[in-house]
Amino acid sequence: MRKLNSEWKFPALLLSAVGISYIGDFIYLVSLNLFIFAKTESVAAVAGLWLIGPLAGIVTSLWSGSLIDRLNKKTIMMITDIMRALLVALIPFLSELWMIYSVLFAVSLCSSFFKPASSAYTVQLVPKEKWLRYNSIASVLTTGALVIGPAIAGALVHFGSYHFAIWCNAVSFLLSACMLSFLPSLYDKQGVSSSHSSKIRLMINDWRIVGDFLRKQRSFLTTYILFQMIMTLAIALDSQEVVFTQTIIELSESQYSLLVSITGIGYLTGSLILAVMANKFPVPYLIGFASTLLSIGYGIYAFSHSFFSACIGFIILGFFSAFANTGFQTFFQQSIPSNKMGRVGATLGFFQSISLIVIILFASFLSEWLNVKEVVIGTSILIMLFAVTLNVLMFNYHNKKEINYKNAKQRELAR
């Protein structure tokens, strides 16, 4: 028992710090939306908040990975947490909308460093055989933050004010930084050379390294593209969710809120089951089968005509989203060396941010031009097609891996 506690001491501390940061993110998201709407009474101003994150990702993705792979990941996480705390604390003192947007953009820039640095640090800190269980517990915390964060934000706004809620969010980032300070500083055994005299040449060389890696890892790249297309299309569906549920299914605001809560409960249930039974599921099956079942949930939702049928779809997609996301996160960690994870993740994130903005805007345009129901059904069918393709790919990948493992065992016994 002591050994088990010792093994999980630092991972548990990292989970706690990241979990507090997640809760802060959701307090920030809800309180900021309320704050901006109360200040401007503009739906467009609130909608603009959703584009700041992807835009910040586009600005930083092509060069942030170079810094993340070369610098101390723990230090990056602490500095970005402290910077986010200071920037968020400034927001209530700002009077002009463009000033608020500028600070929010800076906060998103910090987040675009924190997340890949956190992923790379996790791979260094947590033993490989514990990655799946760690990711499943992190998924539970994310879902818990999704449930707790908005509730805390609502209470803070109700009993205090928008300003008070935002300042509490700033404190959560500082608390996360304090917890991170107790973690060890870890370095890659094989560091990345930084002898280049020109920063531009350095970045070009890093892009070449990423390109060479992706060319050699075709199966990883194909899996990444298929999975991210599923998730990006899912986000595009989420952007049409309110309009679809209220105009097509004709649900009330309270029924829609209940659906969102049900999805969160489904996700939390899936995460808890996976945390307990993490070692029972092969990672490729988690990605393939869970993505297919997730797509079925979206299909049921798209063809729903009542609260009950939409509820079934939301439960299914929420439950299997936990399996698919955790499986993919573990697959990502297994496929990329820690000393390249920042550059590979950031470069892929650049294209992901662009596709996210394009698809969300395109879905909004189609909904205006055609009909929101046709867009939701068409997008759900696309998700299903990508999911089935990914399932076949993962099934073949797992079988090939099993065959290679058996052949290696036979060669070892023959010796």
How does this structure look, described?
- InterPro entries: Bacilysin_exporter_BacE_put, MFS, MFS_dom, MFS_trans_sf.
- This is MFS family permease.
- It is found in: Cell membrane.
- Keywords: Cell membrane, Membrane, Transmembrane, Transmembrane helix, Transport.
- It comes from Fictibacillus halophilus.
- The two termini are 39 Å apart.
- With 415 residues, the chain is mostly helical.
- It has helices at residues 2-7, 9-40, 43-70, 73-90, 97-125, 131-159, 162-180, 199-216, 218-239, 241-247, 253-276, 283-302, 307-335, 338-369, 372-414.
- The chain is globular, with a radius of gyration of 22 Å.
- It contains 15 helices and no strands.
- Helices cover 86% and strands 0% of the residues.
Structure summary:
The chain has 415 residues and is mainly α. It has helices spanning 2-7, 9-40, 43-70, 73-90, 97-125, 131-159, 162-180, 199-216, 218-239, 241-247, 253-276, 283-302, 307-335, 338-369, 372-414.
Percent in strands: under 5%
Q: Determine the structural class based on helices, strands and strand pairing.
A: mainly alpha
* Rg for CA atoms: 22 Å
Helix content: over 70%
Low-confidence stretches: 189-197
The termini sit apart by: 39 Å
The number of distinct β-strands equals: 0
Order of helices and strands: HHHHHHHHHHHHHHH
* Outline type: globular
Largest sheet: none
Helical segment count? 15
In round numbers, the mean pLDDT is: 79
Oligomeric state, counting identical vs distinct chains: single chain
Pfam family, one: MFS_1
Protein name: MFS family permease
InterPro entries: Bacilysin_exporter_BacE_put, MFS, MFS_dom, MFS_trans_sf
Membrane topology: Multi-pass membrane protein
